């Protein structure tokens, strides 16, 4: 499959991982938009949020649990952070493997901030 994040999951493309279990991996974004910029992804190839089904409910909950844990571990839980999921063209999605951006480590601007 020609998916860059599937290649990161299988290890054929290197990444700076900060979290991994049987269902999820999280790694540093190659072009960070903030001092902390982590991508949290399911190992299951789901192209976009539009492709998530009720079958993925537990997996989605686990992605958010991983985000909370990583924010704590990286020391930004209390100072604050932002979780973003871009969907399709107008959302600015570039990689079509579902991912949550975890951004923090500085005061973020835009989107009401
Ligand atoms: P999107 O715009 O699809 O929500 O975000 C895709 C993100 O993936 C971008 O922030 C981009 O910098 C990141 N990215 C793209 N290719 C790679 C890669 O090979 N390695 C890592 N670590 N991040 C990547
Ligand atoms: Zn994929």
UniProtKB/TrEMBL annotation:
Sequence motif Histidine triad motif, location on chain: 97-101
At the top level, the lineage of the source is: Bacteria
Concerning Gene3D superfamilies, the annotation shows:
HIT-like (3.30.428.10)
Q: Which residues form the HIT domain?
A: 4-113
> CDD domains, per this entry?
PKCI_related
One Pfam family of this protein, by short name? HIT
Task: Give the InterPro entries listed for this entry.
Answer: Histidine_triad_CS, Histidine_triad_HIT, HIT-like, HIT-like_sf
PANTHER family registered for this protein in UniProt: HISTIDINE TRIAD HIT PROTEIN
Q: What is the name of this protein? A: HIT domain-containing protein
Protein source organism: Paenibacillus glycinis
């Amino acid at each position: 499959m020609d998916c860059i994040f599937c290649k990161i999951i299988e290890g054929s493309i290197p990444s700076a991982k900060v979290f991994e279990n049987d269902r999820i991996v999280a790694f540093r974004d190659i072009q960070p938009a903030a001092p902390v910029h982590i991508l949290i992804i399911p190992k299951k190839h789901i192209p976009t949020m539009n492709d998530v089904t009720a079958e993925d409910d537990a997996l989605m909950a686990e992605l958010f649990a991983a985000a909370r844990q990583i924010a704590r571990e990286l020391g930004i839980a209390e100072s604050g952070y932002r979780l973003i999921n871009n969907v399709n063209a107008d959302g600015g999605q570039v990689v079509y493997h579902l991912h949550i951006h975890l951004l923090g480590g500085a005061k973020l601007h835009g989107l009401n901030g």
